[in-house]
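Morning F.,

Quick status update on the modeling queue. The single chain you submitted on Monday has been processed. Sequence for confirmation:
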Amino acid sequence: NPTGAREFVEREDVLPPTDELPGKRWEKTREEILPQAVDWSKAVPELILNLQTAKAMILDLQRELSEVRQAISA
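Structure tokens below.
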């Protein structure tokens, strides 16, 4: 769902009812789509660190589970 931005220019001829500056109004001149994107260069290092931390935790838990299973079977 693209978002659009509107550009307005100031005109000196007509005063809209909500404008507090006398003799000026805003008129629509064009509308264009402004694409939005994510800058992954800032997010990727954080994601990699979190993945490495999670992997280390999984390996530790697997090792601990193996030790508990050996203790139970002994």
